[in-house]
């Protein structure tokens, strides 16, 4: 993952690239095989990393207007891996994500605020059926092998944190920390 | 060295089962106390598995011991004052009950968490209770209460054995050590 990110970051950051003439809202499809939702949580003094597959994603990006940009993502809780088998079982159990009853985690953007280094993405995150407003940090890059200014294939790195307790996913709080850090790498392809 | 119990002596099978149970109980109890106090981390997580392994060993040994004593009855208790005999009998029965109930309540509590109960580093035991926080809490509360009771019973058992060995100087402890 780190190697992948290093390669991506070595590419030109799209946010610094000149805009393509005629920019308009474009729908993008997620390349699910090469996209990954990574998360990190603490077990006592240790940090444990896990992954969760992306089930579907609907993305419309307008490089001229953040207001026209919209992202909706659903994650597959049942396919998540929390670092080691017990942790995975615990995470999917009723005490935490309750995967049997709530097999998806969803996120829908409500506002995107671009800045010099990417964007702040406000949205509604639904975990265990509880919806809370969250803000994630997003940075957009073109993928390796593409030319500067070519926005047909992009990579988005989203980072942020959330509180398990805020979503009622507070099981084993004596062992596992409340904070979960997210690092999402989404590779997307413009739909023609 | 007889395998079976004699009319006045314990056979090697009963003595082995007794002392293996002692080791397993000390291991399970010690690890249980350690787990309560330790900081859970990737390095210490394994102690839960060790505790469950020791506990399920206690259960297995106790069941084996009960079955064995049906096949090869233990010799009668050596004569003692009626009160002491009644106390010894009550302690023995309570010990057996605890040695069965302790691992079972732990197993029930573990099953109720929804997590696999894995022993001996890789054997997953079947769940014996539905996933339920109420069952989990109740089972572990009983487990902890029984743990305290078990330590008291062990103290009484050891005190009784030492009393007979050093004050009354009878063969109670010797025949559990040497047959």
Automatic annotation (TrEMBL), chain A:
It comes from the Bacteria. Keywords: Signal. Residues 27-189 form the Lipid/polyisoprenoid-binding YceI-like domain. The keyword Oxidoreductase does not apply. Residues 1-23 form the signal peptide. The keyword Signal applies. SUPFAM superfamilies: YceI-like. PANTHER family: PROTEIN YCEI. This is Lipid/polyisoprenoid-binding YceI-like domain-containing protein. The lineage of its organism: Bacteria, Pseudomonadati, Pseudomonadota, Alphaproteobacteria, Rhodobacterales.
From TrEMBL, chain B:
Signal peptide: none annotated. It is found in: Cell membrane. InterPro entries: Cyt_b561_bac/Ni-Hgenase, Cytochrome_b561_oxidase, Di-haem_cyt_TM. One of its GO terms (molecular function) is electron transfer activity. Residues 10-179 form the Cytochrome b561 bacterial/Ni-hydrogenase domain. It is a multi-pass membrane protein. One of its GO terms (cellular component) is plasma membrane. The chain crosses the membrane at residues 12-35, 47-68, 89-108, 146-167. Keywords: Cell membrane, Electron transport, Heme, Iron, Membrane, Metal-binding, Transmembrane, Transmembrane helix, Transport. Its main location: membrane. Its cofactor is heme b. It holds the Pfam family Ni_hydr_CYTB. GO terms for biological process: respiratory electron transport chain. PANTHER family: CYTOCHROME B561, CYTOCHROME B561 HOMOLOG 2. Belongs to the cytochrome b561 family. This is Cytochrome b. It comes from Kangsaoukella pontilimi.
């Amino acid at each position: 993952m780190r190697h992948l990110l290093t390669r991506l970051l070595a590419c030109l950051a799209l946010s610094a690239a000149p805009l393509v003439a005629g920019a308009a809202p474009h729908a993008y499809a997620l390349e699910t095989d090469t996209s990954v939702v990574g998360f990190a949580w603490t077990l006592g003094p240790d940090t444990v990393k896990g992954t969760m597959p992306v089930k579907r994603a609907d993305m419309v990006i307008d490089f001229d207007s953040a207001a026209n940009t919209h992202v909706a993502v659903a994650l597959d809780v049942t396919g998540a891996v929390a670092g080691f088998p017990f942790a995975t079982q615990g995470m999917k159990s009723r005490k935490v994500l309750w995967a049997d009853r709530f097999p998806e985690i969803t996120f829908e953007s409500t506002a995107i605020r671009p800045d010099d280094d990417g964007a702040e993405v406000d949205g509604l995150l639904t975990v265990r059926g509880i919806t809370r407003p969250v803000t994630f940090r997003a940075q957009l890059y073109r993928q390796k092998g593409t030319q500067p200014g070519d926005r047909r294939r992009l990579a988005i790195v989203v980072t942020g944190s959330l509180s398990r307790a805020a979503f009622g996913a507070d099981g084993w709080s004596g062992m596992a920390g409340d904070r979960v850090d997210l690092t999402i790498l989404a590779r997307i392809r413009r739909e023609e | 060295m007889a395998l079976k119990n004699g009319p006045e002596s314990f056979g090697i099978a009963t003595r082995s089962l007794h002392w293996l149970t002692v080791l397993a109980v000390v291991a399970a109890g010690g690890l249980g106390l350690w787990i309560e106090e330790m900081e859970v981390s990737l390095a210490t997580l394994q102690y839960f598995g060790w505790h469950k392994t020791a506990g399920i060993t206690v259960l297995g040994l106790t069941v084996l011991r009960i079955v064995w004593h049906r096949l090869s009855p233990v010799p009668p208790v050596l004569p003692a004052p009626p009160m002491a005999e009644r106390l010894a009998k009550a302690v023995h029965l309570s010990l057996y009950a605890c040695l069965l109930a302790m691992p079972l309540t732990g197993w029930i509590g573990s099953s109720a968490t929804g997590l696999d109960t894995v022993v001996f580093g890789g054997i997953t035991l079947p769940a014996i209770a539905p996933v339920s926080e109420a069952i989990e809490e109740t089972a572990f509360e009983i487990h902890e209460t029984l743990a305290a009771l078990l330590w008291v019973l062990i103290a009484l058992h050891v005190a009784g054995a030492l009393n007979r060995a050093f004050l009354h100087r009878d063969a109670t402890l010797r025949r559990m050590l040497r047959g």
